[in-house]
Amino acid sequence: MKGQNRSDVNPGSLVDIVLKQDQPSGKLTRGIVKDILTNSQTHPHGIKVRLTDGQVGRVQNIVEKGQ
After folding, report:
1. Per-domain residue ranges for the chain?
2. What is the phi-psi region of residue 49: left when phi exceeds 0, alpha when psi lies from -120 to 50, beta otherwise?
3. What pLDDT, on the 0 to 100 scale, is given for residue 66?
4. Which residues neighbour 25 within 8 Å (Cβ) at sequence distance 6 or greater?
5. 8-37: average pLDDT
6. Domain 6-64 carries which CATH code?
7. What percent of the chain has pLDDT over 70?
8. Given this model, what pLDDT does residue 1 score?
9. Quick one: pLDDT at residue 67?
10. Which pTM was predicted?
11. Where are the beta strands (DSSP E) in the chain?
12. What is the DSSP letter of 42?
Protein backbone atom coordinates (compact mmCIF):
# COMPACT_ATOMS: atom_id res chain seq x y z
CA MET A 1 0.00 0.00 0.00
CA LYS A 2 1.28 3.45 -0.88
CA GLY A 3 1.60 6.16 1.75
CA GLN A 4 -0.05 9.11 0.01
CA ASN A 5 -3.29 9.12 2.05
CA ARG A 6 -3.17 10.29 5.65
CA SER A 7 -6.07 7.96 6.55
CA ASP A 8 -3.93 4.92 5.62
CA VAL A 9 -1.07 5.83 7.98
CA ASN A 10 -1.51 5.32 11.74
CA PRO A 11 0.83 5.46 14.73
CA GLY A 12 2.19 1.96 15.16
CA SER A 13 2.21 1.22 11.42
CA LEU A 14 5.32 -0.46 9.99
CA VAL A 15 6.37 1.65 7.01
CA ASP A 16 9.16 2.29 4.53
CA ILE A 17 10.09 5.98 4.37
CA VAL A 18 12.52 7.99 2.30
CA LEU A 19 14.64 10.39 4.35
CA LYS A 20 15.32 13.88 2.98
CA GLN A 21 19.00 13.08 2.35
CA ASP A 22 18.05 9.81 0.60
CA GLN A 23 15.55 11.34 -1.85
CA PRO A 24 18.02 11.47 -4.79
CA SER A 25 18.95 7.79 -4.38
CA GLY A 26 15.50 6.58 -3.30
CA LYS A 27 16.98 4.55 -0.42
CA LEU A 28 14.22 3.40 1.95
CA THR A 29 14.31 3.19 5.74
CA ARG A 30 11.92 0.85 7.60
CA GLY A 31 10.43 1.74 10.95
CA ILE A 32 7.35 2.17 13.10
CA VAL A 33 5.34 5.42 12.94
CA LYS A 34 5.35 7.49 16.13
CA ASP A 35 3.83 10.77 14.85
CA ILE A 36 2.11 11.92 11.66
CA LEU A 37 3.51 15.31 10.63
CA THR A 38 1.48 16.04 7.47
CA ASN A 39 -1.77 17.89 8.18
CA SER A 40 -3.40 17.55 4.74
CA GLN A 41 -5.38 14.42 3.85
CA THR A 42 -3.13 13.54 0.91
CA HIS A 43 0.36 14.36 -0.32
CA PRO A 44 1.74 13.34 -3.73
CA HIS A 45 5.21 12.53 -2.34
CA GLY A 46 3.95 10.63 0.71
CA ILE A 47 2.73 11.52 4.17
CA LYS A 48 5.53 12.90 6.37
CA VAL A 49 6.01 10.94 9.61
CA ARG A 50 8.38 10.64 12.56
CA LEU A 51 9.48 7.11 13.38
CA THR A 52 9.91 5.77 16.93
CA ASP A 53 13.70 6.22 16.54
CA GLY A 54 13.25 9.92 15.69
CA GLN A 55 13.93 9.79 11.94
CA VAL A 56 11.62 11.89 9.76
CA GLY A 57 10.65 11.12 6.18
CA ARG A 58 7.85 10.53 3.70
CA VAL A 59 5.99 7.22 3.61
CA GLN A 60 6.61 5.28 0.39
CA ASN A 61 5.08 1.93 1.40
CA ILE A 62 2.90 0.74 4.24
CA VAL A 63 4.22 -2.71 5.19
CA GLU A 64 1.83 -3.39 8.06
CA LYS A 65 -1.03 -1.18 9.16
CA GLY A 66 -1.05 -0.10 12.81
CA GLN A 67 -3.92 0.60 15.20
Report:
1. 6-64
2. beta
3. 82
4. none
5. 97
6. 2.30.30
7. 100
8. 80
9. 74
10. 0.93
11. 14-19, 28-36, 48-51, 56-64
12. B
